Amino acid sequence: MQQSPAKIQIAEEFRAQFLTPELVEEIIQEQKENYRFMYNVINKSYKQGILNLFLDGLIDKKLLEEFGVE
């Protein structure tokens, strides 16, 4: 499911304001608890300093959910 351009813009603004290493770690931990395979993929990339596309999407989803954007 593709996001609308307006949602993408909002997510980018939220990232600029609220993206922290703690938030990324929280998302990675959630993946470890619930989706072990994807945890291995995103954690490996993150440890190499890379926010892969899957983690990017999870970050956007988390920020949009936290601020009630549907």
Automatic annotation (TrEMBL):
Q: Tell me which species this is from.
A: Chryseobacterium elymi
> Superkingdom of the source?
Bacteria
> Could you tell me what this protein is called?
Uncharacterized protein
